[in-house]
Design a protein that fits this description.
By secondary structure, the protein is an alpha/beta fold. The chain is built from eleven helices and 20 strands. Helix 10 runs antiparallel to helix 11. The protein is globular.
Length: 448
């Protein structure tokens, strides 16, 4: 294994036909399992007139009814605390995790058996090994280790690889920066936002991270990990390579990862997942190179089967040949592009948080930012970008930065006028987990 760039070379370099055959076998088995043991799927299949025996080819996947988050949440409410999806109760589980709760909604609750947990660590091994993490590394996990599933699977994936693992929970940012340097970490795992926050704190402490042993950053939790401007800024500040990954509490682990070739996208772990891309409105599949909503079927988490789950993630699938690494796994170009419900309509113009961040990260003087949408007395939409500069930034530099930001944002948004405002140092919120920089205060938000 040590000689290969792949954690599982046989699966990762299998032909597309071999992958399809494997997926079909696993899909039949999963549907039989769910139909026999999950109250939710038993009823869902009955209502849709679906039976596992109907799965003759992968095209028959579309016979299976989709599952939405709202349905899952309703099931939790009707049969608390875990709903009717699980095939067994807490007595069969060893872990209980939730979503991050950053959306303000009730979190989803998930159970894992010992077998599920081992599988989740294995999925992280695909991504960690694929980006070049090896047993000789020293890894620092800048994560709070709470009930949010976050980097828990990464932690155990690192242990499975044999990497020396430093859990950086329940500490200040300053303490984490000092530990990263003092322990000689070569790998750091965090959200993209927190990687920037760590770099800002290091600068305040007079520590040059580019001179530290850190060689790789494993990013997850936000689409920013694949925004070229954000990733480029992180790599410059750390003097290290940054690799994007993405997972979901609903899955329990990652389903995509960026390999060491950094192809501008993330490979789908296709021997363990079927990832469809559909039109968000019609639910019909879209082709390579077309943007749509990802719908996931996961083969690994046995206690909570997941079949055709609508994620609300925006993606664009491209063929495996886009990457030179030799894997046969298809990619999502640019990783997770955003959320179906992220788009904001402002005076007739579509505004995506990812596009705004792409512009802002071209301005290294900006330490933090927030997008604020309001509506004035005349019921006209107003969009403001609030930015923080370093505490020692002089007032004489502000007008130039403000005007340049406003011009760049307008050019990227069909001439839409953004009001650019300066926030006081430390005024804007900081994020360790998923950043929520868009605040929509309109009475009736459009596109929310």
């Amino acid at each position: 294994m040590a000689a290969s760039e792949c954690w599982n070379p046989k699966a990762e370099t299998a032909s597309r036909d071999e992958l399809a055959a494997l997926q079909l076998v696993k899909l039949r088995r999963l549907c039989e399992w769910a139909a026999a043991r999950s109250p939710w799927y038993r009823e869902s299949f009955r209502q849709a007139g679906f039976e596992p025996e109907q799965l003759k080819t992968l095209d028959d996947l579309r016979r299976i009814p989709m599952l939405t988050r709202d349905q899952w949440m309703a099931s939790q409410a009707e049969a608390p605390p875990f709903g009717r999806l699980p095939v067994a109760g807490p007595e069969a589980a060893i872990r209980y995790h939730t979503t991050s709760g950053t959306t303000g909604r009730e979190p989803l609750r998930a159970l894992d058996s010992a077998k599920d947990w081992a599988w989740q660590a294995e999925m992280w091994c695909y991504g960690l090994w694929g980006f070049g993490v090896r047993p000789a590394d020293v890894a620092y996990v800048a994560f709070g280790y709470g009930s949010f599933i976050g980097f828990w699977g990464l932690h155990y994936g690192l242990e499975k690889i044999g990497t020396l693992n430093i859990p950086g929970g329940a500490q200040t940012t300053e303490s984490r920066v000092k530990q990263i340097v003092n322990f000689g970490a070569t790998v750091v795992a965090s959200t993209p936002t927190y990687a920037l926050r760590l770099a800002q704190e290091a600068e305040r402490l007079g520590i040059d991270l580019a001179d530290s042993p850190v060689e790789r950053l494993i990013l997850s939790g936000e689409p920013a990990g694949s925004i070229p401007q954000t990733k480029g800024l992180i790599e410059r500040l750390w003097g290290a390579k940054a690799g994007d990954t993405a997972g979901m509490t609903e899955i329990g682990t990652i389903m995509i990862f960026e390999c060491s070739h950094q192809p501008g996208g993330t490979h789908i772990i296709e021997d363990h997942f079927i990832e469809e891309v559909v039109d968000p409105a019609s639910g019909e599949p879209v082709g390579y190179g077309e943007q749509g909503e990802r719908v996931v079927t996961s083969f690994g988490r046995g206690i909570m089967p997941l079949l055709r789950y609508r994620t609300a993630d925006l993606v664009c699938k491209v063929p495996a040949s886009r990457c030179t690494c030799g894997r046969s796994f298809d990619l999502y170009e640019g990783g997770i592009l955003g959320r179906v419900d992220d788009m904001k309509l402002v005076r007739g113009t579509n505004v995506y948080p990812r596009a705004v961040e792409g512009v802002v990260r071209e301005f290294p003087m900006v330490e933090e930012f927030q997008l604020l949408l309001t509506r004035d007395a005349a019921m006209l939409d107003r969009i403001a970008l609030r930015v923080e500069l370093p505490p020692d930034a002089g007032d004489d530099t502000w007008p130039e930065i403000r005007d340049a930001l406003a011009k760049a944002l307008a050019e990227a948004h069909e001439g839409l006028r953004f009001e650019v405002e300066r926030a006081a140092p430390g005024e804007l919120p900081r994020f360790e987990l998923k950043a929520r920089r868009t605040v929509d205060q309109r009475d009736q938000p459009i596109g929310a």
